[in-house]
Amino acid sequence: MCPPHVYGGWWKAATFQVAVEFLIGSVVGWLVARLRRQTRLAERRAIEAEGLRDELGRRADLLDAVSRFYKGLLLMGWPVSVGIFVLAHPLTPLLLGHGFLASEPALRVLALALGIAFVNNAFIGALNASDRQSSFTWAAGWSVVANLALNLVLIPLFGYQGASWATVMTELVLGVAGWILTSRYVGHVPVLQLSWRVVLAGVIMGAAIYPLSTFEGFKVAIPIVSGAVVYAGFVLLLRALNREEIGWARRALALAR
After folding, report:
1. What is the pTM of this model?
2. Three-class SS of residue 131?
3. Inter-residue contact 171 to 147 (CB < 8 Å)
4. Pick from 152, 128, 153: nearest CA to 140
5. Residues 30, 36, 38, 40: is their CA dihedral positive or negative?
6. First and final CA of the chain: distance in angstroms?
7. Within a 13 Å sphere around the CA of 144, how many CA atoms are in the beta-carbon half?
8. How far apart, in whole angstroms, are the C-alpha atoms of residue 109 and residue 218?
9. Could you read off the pLDDT of 153-168 as tens digits, one per residue?
10. Where are the domains of the chain?
C-alpha cells in the first residue's frame, strides 16, 4: 500500500493531465474546423462531378488532410510529452507542489499519455469529418472497457503507478481503434512513415536536455528553451517537415484568423 499523500499526488498529476488535454482540445479545435472545411470542399467537388474517379479523388483529398493533421498534432504533442518525461523531477514541485514530490513517477508516466492523446485527435477529427461519429463512439466505448479492466488489474498490483500506466494504455487503445476505423472509412494513414522523423527529433531533444534535468525552480526554463531549439533544429535537419507541409500549415493558420 502507498501512503495517502502519494495517491493524492497521483490525483493531482491526473488532474493536471485532464487540464492539459482540455488545452489540447482548444488547440485542435480550429484544426478540426479546417479539416471539416476541406472535407466540405472535397464533397462539393464530388457532388458536382460524376463517376467513381471523382469519389476516389474526394477520399484521397480527405486522407491527405487527415495525414497532415496527424503529423501536425504529433509535431506539437511529442516534444511536450518528452519534455515532461525528462524534466519530471523539477516540474513536479512546480506543477503539483513540494508536498507531492513522491508523485514524480506518476507525472513521468502520464507524460507519455499526453503525446498519444494529441495524435488521437487526428482520428477523432477524421471520423467526425466523414460523418462517422457513431464509429468513434464504439472506439471510445472500447477504450472505457480497456480502462476499467486495466485499472482492476494494475492498481492492486502497482498502486498509483498502475493507474498511471492504465491511463497510457487506454489512450493507446483509443488510438489504435481510431486508426483502424479511419482506415476503414477514410483510408490508410501511414503512421510509421509520418512519425519516425518526428519521434527521432524528440528523442534527440530528450537526450540533449537530460543533463539539464537537475535544474530546479524557475531555472527549468533553461532546458525547456534549449529543448525547443534542439527539437526545431532536428525537425528541419531530418526533414520531418517539408516546404509543402510548411505552406499547408501557413494556409491553415491564415484560415483560422
Report:
1. 0.76
2. coil
3. no
4. 128
5. negative
6. 52
7. 6
8. 22
9. 999 999 888 999 999 9
10. 4-193
Residue recorded with cell 513540494: 98
DSSP state of 220: G
d(CA 126, CA 184): 11
Question: For position 42, what pLDDT does the model report?
Answer: 56
Contacts of 119 (CB under 8 A, 6+ apart): 70, 73, 74, 77, 175
Exposed/middle/buried for residue 53 (C-beta within 10 Å: 0-12, 13-18, 19+): exposed
62-110: pLDDT as tens digits: 888 889 889 989 999 999 999 999 999 999 888 878 777 888 898 999 9
Reported in sequence order, the residue ranges of 45-134 that DSSP labels E, i.e. its strands, are: none
- Please state, in angstroms and rounded to a whole number, the distance separating the CA atoms of residues 179 and 171: 12
pLDDT of residue 45: 55
Alpha helices, DSSP H only, in 103-242?
A: 104-129, 133-158, 160-185, 191-209, 221-237
Write down the pLDDT at residue 195. Answer: 94
Asked whether the beta carbons of 39 and 62 are under 8 A apart, the reply is yes
- Judge contact between 81 and 111, C-beta under 8 A: yes
